[in-house]
Specification:
Layout: H1 5-55, H2 87-96, H3 100-113, H4 118-130
Length: 131
């Protein structure tokens, strides 16, 4: 039989393909074997732990009483401000979002406790002027 150069190249590529397939089959077979070994070891370890658990004395603990359901407080409205909040900062945020009425309310609450606060007074004038 007479082979030319292109036949040799095709034959070489087929041999390389065959070797690659053989290597892939071997790698996959080893992966399945290792997976089976790991599963068997895991099952043996779990069985040993279950034996240990069954041999330990069972101490019964009384069930914990469930706490009585608490009454839910009314959800706060968006314009409500708590006592601990910085009312001036809240007013600045309200003015940023053009909520002038909430800003005025917040500043008035702050000025009831701090009547000489210059920053709050300036913000109140600004909010009332833009109204």
């Amino acid at each position: 039989m007479d082979f030319d150069q292109s036949d040799w190249i095709v034959t070489l590529l087929l041999v390389i393909l065959g070797i690659s397939v053989l290597i892939a089959v071997i790698v996959i077979a080893k992966a399945f074997a290792n997976n089976a070994k790991e599963n068997k070891a895991r099952e043996a370890r779990l069985a040993a732990e279950e034996k240990i658990i069954h041999h330990e004395p069972q101490v019964s603990t009384p069930p914990k009483p469930k706490p009585a359901p608490k009454a839910k407080p009314a959800p706060a409205q968006k314009d409500d401000v708590d006592e601990g909040d910085d009312l001036v900062a809240a007013a600045e945020v309200y003015l940023t979002y053009e909520l002038k009425e909430q800003a005025i309310i917040s500043l008035e609450k702050h000025l009831l406790k701090h009547p000489t606060d210059k920053k709050a007074l300036d913000l109140l004038k600004k909010a009332e002027a833009s109204k």
